[in-house]
Amino acid sequence: MGRRFLRSVVASDLVALVVAMLVASWSVFGTPLLWAVDVPGGRSIWPFVALTFGSAIAASYIAVRSWAKSAPRPNYGRALGIVGFTTAVTAVGLVLTRAYWSRGYFFLTMSTWLALALGHRFVRRQRPWAEPMVVITAEKQLADDLRAAPHA
């Protein structure tokens, strides 16, 4: 169950990144279609898109590997870490490759993605969270109270 849940969080993050790129493209370039973006100087936006997706996948992989030892609860801190890592790696990659990038597009993409990532984690955290547990106690009343709890 934990792996399936983590995969769904990663998939939600990547879908949120696609939506953020489309929203930013529409806002900055006037079209949501990335292949129709008219970049000055005949350059291409695709190296920027590839860097962003590659670093997002790497950040998600690192986050999934770090979740392996803990409960797979949607975590706001991990969303900040994934977006922060992706932002840093994309920025360094753009400087090193000297690929085309737009400051407005970059910051709007990352901020929209962060908002969407935090939003879908907020929605997922609304339902009660239950982990299988074992209670070892000599207090029968405590065990009965825990069993009768509405969220157990």
List keywords for this structure.
68% helix, 152 residues, elongated, 5 helices, mainly alpha
Order of helices and strands: HHHHH
Q: What average pLDDT do the residues reach?
A: 82
Beta-strand segment tally: 0
How far apart the termini lie comes to 18 Å
Share of residues in strands: under 5%
Characterize the main sheet: none
How would you describe this protein?
The chain is built from five helices and no strands. The longest helix is centred in the first third of the chain and has 28 residues, at 2-29. The chain is elongated, with a radius of gyration of 21 Å. By secondary structure, it is an all-alpha fold. Helix 1 (2-29) packs antiparallel against helix 2 (46-67), helix 2 (46-67) packs antiparallel against helix 3 (76-97) and helix 3 (76-97) packs antiparallel against helix 4. The relative contact order is 0.15. The chain has helices spanning 2-29, 46-67, 76-97, 103-124, 140-148.
What is the fold's blueprint, element by element?
Blueprint: H1 2-29, H2 46-67, H3 76-97, H4 103-124, H5 140-148
How is this structure best summarized?
The protein has five helices and no strands. The protein has helices spanning 2-29, 46-67, 76-97, 103-124, 140-148.
